[in-house]
Amino acid sequence: MSAKNLKIFVTFLLLGLLVVSFSITIAQDEVEIEGEGEGEMAELSGDIVVSFQSLDTQTWEALCAAYVELHPNVNCTVELKPSEGYQEFIRTQFAAGDPEFSLVNGNVVADLVNDKVFLDLSAYLDRESPYSNRLWREDFDETALSNMRDPLTGEMYLLNTETVQVLWFYNKTAFEEAGILDDAQAVAEGPRNQPTWDEFLNWCDALSDAGYIPVAIEGDFNSFWQLRVGWLARMYADQFTRDEAELVRCQPGDYCFREGVDDQWVYDPSDPTNDDNTNITFNPVRKMIALRDGEQSVNGEAWREMYTNFKEFGDRCAPPGWIGTTDAYPLFLTGKAAIRLDGAWMLSNFEKDIRSLAEGTYNYSTAEEGAPTPTPSADDLAANVFELGTFNNPTMEGAEVDAPARTIEVNIGFWSIPKKDQAQNDLEVDFLMFVTSPEGAGVYLANKLDPNNANGGVNGPLAINDVQLPPELEARFEGLRLIGNTEKDTAGTYRSRGVADYQPSVREWVDLAHQYFLGEITLDAFLDDYEQSLMNHFDEILDHQNITPADLEDPSKRPENF
Predict the structure, then answer these.
(1) How far apart are CA 117 and CA 325, in angstroms?
(2) How many other C-beta atoms can be found within 10 angstroms of the C-beta atom of residue 216?
(3) Is the pLDDT of residue 226 over 50?
(4) Which residues share a beta bridge with 168?
(5) For residue 495, which of 523, 530, 540, 536 has the smallest C-alpha distance?
(6) Whole-number Å distance between alpha carbons of 429 and 423
(7) Cβ–Cβ contacts within 10 Å for residue 375, how many?
(8) Measured torsion, CA atoms of residues 248, 251, 257, 259, in degrees rounded to the nearest 10
(9) Helix, strand, coil percent content, the chain, rounded in steps of 5
(10) For the chain, what is the mean pLDDT?
(11) CB 380 within 8 A of CB 394
């Protein structure tokens, strides 16, 4: 996917600033592949419909063609969808009966995942893949596979195939002209490549003084829910809620308490992996009790401190009139804005995105809420070849902060298959086995990294065994620094922008946040109204998570509808 169609995020390692001025040319035989399956293929027939939230038709048509070559009686169709209206597209098909699609991104409909309308892929992990001649589980990185599965039940409804890290990219030329390049490079020499929040805001001020828009960021609903502002809300809520772990963890006697895991856990906010699901289990019923009783509020001192910082970001760093805008990326590509919050996928897309602007093929993100950034002039484009630097999330500091800022470092993809009859689901999983085999992944990479594929690009290393990126690109990903992952079940980030993706609560938070950033309401009014919104929707939020009011009477018991 291109950067603007993703949600978000990698587990990589170590060292250095990133300098990107390259173009990747890759042919199928350049992807390193080992262990291709030679086994005899079963005779399969039927229809497969790929309906991911993506614009990358080339890659999926190539995969379909390669699969149909092996199984000529299969009809494989690519019907990709834009991000706008994607959630509604999935819901409409389920509401009408059996969905026509075979593969979608299930993470945008968390309630349907909870309702188990998608296929539990774990049932297939111990089957042999005919494309790699080994158990399907052995095609995946072991840690990535573990993170895809429910730590209690082992169920797996979302398949993640790439790794991603969210970080901040900057224009080195702009930083040099603003007199802050040496400061940024000094930060990069530290073990986390991470400025403080105040340092970051000061960089924004220096960039403004030098005539630059500091940060290219969007302010429409999609940005606040799924993309950049939503990332910020989740990543920084994590800084202020780590200490709530003891309140909502699974206690001895709880249905979710794991002997040998939860009885060994000790709170340590200095350890960025302290709350990974391999170390601790959180009880969703205890979270709802804490929310109901105000022990996990959104209008306390921690949230006041965090949103005071966010307002400063909007005032000092974001583009003028940014609330409601849908596409700020061209501001960064043309050098008008100096910083872009993005994913590591920019390392494979950056020059291609600049070229697409120059050629007039750039696909602007549009929505009813606001207009995209105007098309840059030819002069702007001609001046826009620059080196990229990176830094990790600026870490907020203050009395309410529990730990340094972390980011989104996670396997992504979120591929899901709706439950259908056994034969149809078997066919759809067989297609996934092909895509995630060394042979299929080779087709995937060859097309994703094709410089002529305007919607290609990879997010990071694949979580698929025996498949490697081209050495130059792999080296660039390896230059990123680990600071810890927030995109997981944590103690308190579930309420960072609405609760648990329950859409009415998300939409009310976005509306209130827009008013706050525009200066139409005070911080107190924003937080109090946000708290009241969650209480108004509390019963529906419970239902959205398959929790009943009766379940709250005894959090030690497994919820009846789980």
Answers:
(1) 35
(2) 28
(3) yes
(4) 341, 391
(5) 530
(6) 10
(7) 13
(8) 130
(9) 40, 10, 45
(10) 89
(11) no
Percentage, residues of the chain above pLDDT 90 = 74
Q: Can you read off the two tokens belonging to residue 380?
A: 């702007």
CATH topology of domain 3-163+413-478: D-Maltodextrin-Binding Protein; domain 2 (3.40.190)
Burial of 282 (0-12, 13-18, 19+ CB in 10 A): buried
User: Helix crossing, 57-70 with 438-448: angle to 10°?
Assistant: 150
The pLDDT, as a whole number, for residue 225 is 92
Looking at mean pLDDT, say which of 101-115, 125-139, 469-483 comes out highest.
Answer: 125-139
Residue whose C-alpha is closest to residue 430's, from 163, 98, 63, 106:
63
* Pairing state between β 46-50 and 388-391: unpaired
Return the pLDDT at 269: 96
Lowest model confidence (mean pLDDT) among 95-99, 134-138, 510-514, 523-527: 95-99
Query: What is the Cβ-side half-sphere exposure of residue 349, based on CA atoms within 13 angstroms?
Result: 27
Sign of the Cα torsion 323, 326, 329, 332 reads negative
User: What average pLDDT does range 512-524 have in this prediction?
Assistant: 98
Q: Which residue do the tokens 């990974």 mark?
A: 276
Check if the beta carbon of residue 200 is closer than 8 Å to that of residue 263.
no
pLDDT of residue 370: 54
Find the distance separating the first CA and the last CA of the chain, reported in whole Å: 33
The pTM assigned to this predicted structure is 0.79
Q: What 3 state SS string does 3-65 have?
A: HHHCCCCCCCCCCCCCCCCCCCCCCHHHCEECCCCCCCCCCCCEEEEECCECCCHHHHHHHHH
Three-state SS at 479: coil
Torsion of CA 543, 549, 550, 556, to 10 degrees: 80
Alpha helices in 343-484 (DSSP H): 346-359, 378-382, 422-435, 438-448, 471-478
Rounded Cα gap, residues 294 and 141, in angstroms: 40
Of the candidates 97, 92, 121, the residue with the CA atom closest to the CA atom of residue 109: 92
Q: Interior CA angle at 195 toward 193 and 198, to 5°?
A: 175
Residue whose structure tokens are 């997010």 = 459
Q: Pairing between strand 337-343 and 213-215?
A: parallel
